[in-house]
Amino acid sequence: MGIDRDPREMTFRPMPVLTGLSLISLVILYMLGSWQYQRYSDKVDRPPPEADVAAVVMSLEIDIDLSHPGNIQQVYGFADSEPIWRRYAPGRVVATDEPVLVMVEATGGAMPVDALIAKLPPTIAFDGILAVRERNKSSFNAQDNPEQDQWYTLAPEKMWNRLALENVPRVAEPIIMTVRNAADLSQSRLTPNPYAFSEPIDPLPPERHFGYALTWWGMALGLIGVYVALHRARGRLKF
User: Fold this and answer.
1) Quick check: 73 and 62 in contact, CB under 8 A?
2) Contact (Cβ atoms closer than 8 angstroms) between residue 94 and residue 123
3) What does the H/E/C string look like for 130-146?
């Protein structure tokens, strides 16, 4: 004897493979949206990065060690959403005779431009900070190439050893750095140095992360709509 079903009852026969893939995708999309929303919340609540260095900025005058025969040590990074290579050279603070690894300028573009320390000006002056700024290496960073004086993680000790100099110095970072056009070094611009701060500055504003969160969550809702529509078209979802 069969069981009478209420004609108003919904029937649903999910497609196993599609359902499994859809659930996995929904979890991923939700997590991506939540991650971007968390970044939005963190940036909204965080004080401006300038507060991190306001108390330690000083006027620095640094003599560059032009007698050193080596190349400028170059470190890959980003500024103004553009890849750059920051150039570091050995020097000494004029007021204290303290040895430092000083960031003298940067060149724009994905490829570094070779340069000798001997071609730098003998003295540079800027408002900046003195600190040990060795950053944790990210698993996403490319492999350092010390033989070519190219680095993807700021590593003062290794860079100093590459220059065959004794004692590990502090790093002198200008608050405002010069970025030269790699194709024409006579052209340059001034821009805030994000690497003067204790942590790299993320150039994206909070609102951009909020938009990304809505995008990921919107894709999740769209996936649900496609899932329901496909099951209805196949007769596996009836009301």
Assistant:
1) no
2) yes
3) EECCCCCCCCCCCCCEH
